[in-house]
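Continuing the series of single-chain predictions for the mutant panel. This is the parent chain; the variants come on the following pages.
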Amino acid sequence: MTTPTAPRPLVLGLLAVLVLGACSAATTPSGPAGPGDRPSAAAPSSAPSDGGGAGSPGDIGQTDPSTPIGGAIDPIPVDPGLGQAKLVIPRPGQLNPRPVGAANLEPAVTGHHVLVKVTWWSGVEPCNVLDSVLVDRSGTDITIQLVEGTSDANAICMEMAAQKSTIVDLGELEPCTYTIWAGGKGDAKPVTVTVS
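Parent structure:
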């Protein structure tokens, strides 16, 4: 008996990483971004954000309220095949929230709309549950920080690695070249996308 192949997320079909393009001087960072210049994501907090969201712990923070930046979107539930990450959505309100590092960033650009598939290694539920995704924008640098917690502080979970992913909707961005960073300590390399 063959197992049906899981549909690939839209983000993989739309993957487009372009390096060409120029931005106006008003949105260009003051210098080239290097590993030491990486912007830091806001620390996880249960306090309402003032970034234009509804103010719940799962809201996406942003530094420029005039530019809309979305959050994690609800992907189509997919049982992962061998070697594929399990798609998850944030479930705000987890206990003991803590930042986790991403292993990979995969952007997709359609017109001016940007999605990013973020993949990371974690433990199993209920001990490791995605609580929220924080997005911090500073000029053309965008930092995505994953926050996990536990849904049961008394749970005893197996020490087993689980690969997970979520899709972050950055919304409509102005034409420019952006660098997307993963917050926290992870192996994800920054990626550059051009919105034209």
